[in-house]
Design a protein that fits this description.
The chain has helices spanning 6-15, 27-33, 65-73, 81-87; strands spanning 23-26, 39-47, 57-63, 77-80, 94-96. With 98 residues, it is of the alpha/beta class.
Length: 98
């Protein structure tokens, strides 16, 4: 898959950073900034601090076990960044958090 879209080029650049410079996003940030039914991408790790009451699909490099549980309990979906790239090669209607 070619990375022609500016969106995916930006994600690729963020992912290539050293691990300690990558972003971490807690559940409460997803709750605060995401709209119900939205797709969120985190070019880093999702952690479990906070509560999630919205149905949000989240793609990230990695998730803590508790964060996965909270997203699924809120009827959201967990996916890898690669899965999201395959489903949405243009990167349309995806919000970057972190």
């Amino acid at each position: 898959i070619s990375l022609k879209s500016k969106f995916w080029k930006r994600i690729a650049r963020d992912i290539r950073r050293p691990a300690r410079q990558r972003r971490t996003v807690n559940i409460y940030k997803i709750e605060r900034f995401a709209k119900d039914g939205e797709i969120i991408i985190v070019p880093g790790k999702v952690l479990s601090v906070g509560e999630l009451n919205k149905k949000v699909d989240v793609a990230a490099l990695s998730f803590s076990d508790d964060a996965k549980l909270k997203i699924v309990q809120a009827k959201g979906k967990i996916m890898s960044i690669k899965e999201l790239l395959q489903q949405n090669p243009a990167g349309k209607n995806v919000r970057i958090l972190g």
